[in-house]
Amino acid sequence: MNDRVNTLLKILDEIYPEKISFITENDPWRFLVTVMLSASTTDKQAIKVAAELFKRFPESSDFAGAEIHEIETIIKPAGLYRTKAPRIKEVSSYIARNGLPHTEEELMNLPGIGEKTAACYLEHVLSLPAVIADTHFVRVAYRLGFTDTENRLKAAAEIRERFPKELWSRMSMVLNLHGRTVCKARPVCSECALKDLCPSSVCGNAVP
Fold first, then answer.
1. How far is it, in rounded angstroms, from Cα 35 to Cα 129?
2. Global pTM exceeds 0.85
């Protein structure tokens, strides 16, 4: 990493809280299901829908005899409910039978668990280094020049290659939060602490 990148990361590390969580669920199974629900919707909506789902099915074992239609009805506000419902049932039933997954390979073999969902679980539940390449993270990483692509999978691979493991999780959290609060789809560059160093900034001394 060059001096500019080090400085950017240092600034973000200092301005954002030490602990950042977008889904604060502490139960590993419930956390995983909530992350699955968050696909193509907001975390706020996923958390709201998950709360209703867990009222009806409080334990992973409760999904064994669940009707797909009932799950669909509950999770419909989170979108993609026809796809998510059978996957949530299968993942929950798997965990009820086999226990919680403890490796990325095991996670990725479950239906509906992609790289981003697996990374969230690795970081939040297992406290393992992970690059969580959601929309906000990739947007900020690309604008800062940390990655050369806006493709989520390729960007995650580039970050893992270019940055040491010990930075992955913290970088994921601070870039994500920065993307939600300042570096949005329409960025507020004038309020950004990185504006003088960001290669995409339209403020300060940076090149637009």
1. 18
2. yes
